[in-house]
Design a protein that fits this description.
- This protein is an all-alpha fold.
- The protein is built from 9 helices and no strands.
- The chain folds into 2 domains: 48 residues, Orthogonal Bundle (Arc Repressor Mutant, subunit A), CATH 1.10.10.60; 133 residues, Orthogonal Bundle (Tetracycline Repressor, domain 2), CATH 1.10.357.
- 68% of the residues lie in helices and 0% in strands.
- The longest helix is centred in the N-terminal third of the chain and has 23 residues.
């Protein structure tokens, strides 16, 4: 299959994503990525000057895809802000199923790349910061007494889901996240009823 440079770059990044995410950033070499992508190492190095550049591009791409997922889930489509927030936790439950999740790629990137000046580290922090801001926008719309505090509580709940599933699986404490979000919203002083949970556990 012939690909132009942009298509080849995206193809390599998809392969890099699968390998970095499931096997570890430092554990996977550039030669393996090139081999599984079906490109010569020289081609890969024309697209990415170094492994660090490839890692940074991987985390940046993951952040872009995560933002798209988040925005699609909480889209302002007539639902109230409370229901949009709860929809996020419903979607999170689906996202962390074991066949497609071993944890948060950004937390894993931060653990593997502690250098705050590394572009990949900055991209990971940027994604987490963006989520916090978006949660703040959503909680402000609920009329909560302290929307910033509520946003931080919800952000911590989300982070707890990603951390918990790595050790205890999706049927462990992570499955309580939606109910916890409901409790936080109910205690926040915001208005507007939520959609019934109808048998969620």
């Amino acid at each position: 299959m012939r690909r132009n440079a942009a298509q080849t770059r995206e193809h390599v990044l998809q392969i890099a994503h699968d390998l970095f995410y499931w096997h570890g950033i430092r554990a996977v070499g550039v030669d393996r990525i090139a081999a599984e992508a079906g490109v010569a190492p020289t081609t890969l190095y024309r697209l990415f000057a170094s492994k660090d550049d490839l890692i940074a591009a991987y985390v940046e791409r993951a952040g872009r895809l995560y933002r798209e997922w988040f925005d699609a889930v909480v889209a302002d489509d007539g639902r109230g802000p409370r229901d949009r927030i709860l929809a996020l936790f419903d979607a999170l439950t689906e996202q962390v199923q074991p066949q497609q999740c071993r944890g948060c790629p950004f937390l894993m990137a931060l653990a593997e790349i502690p250098d705050r000046d590394h572009p990949a580290h900055r991209h990971a922090v940027g994604t987490k910061t963006w989520v916090r801001v978006r949660l703040g926008e959503l909680t402000a719309a609920t009329g909560a007494d302290n929307p910033a505090e509520l946003a931080d509580q919800l952000a911590l709940t989300m982070e707890g889901v990603y951390a918990s599933v790595q050790a205890l699986g999706e049927r462990g404490p992570a499955r309580r996240a939606r109910a916890l979000a409901e409790l936080l919203l109910s205690a926040s002083g915001g208005s507007g009823p939520a959609t019934p949970t109808s048998g969620r556990t």
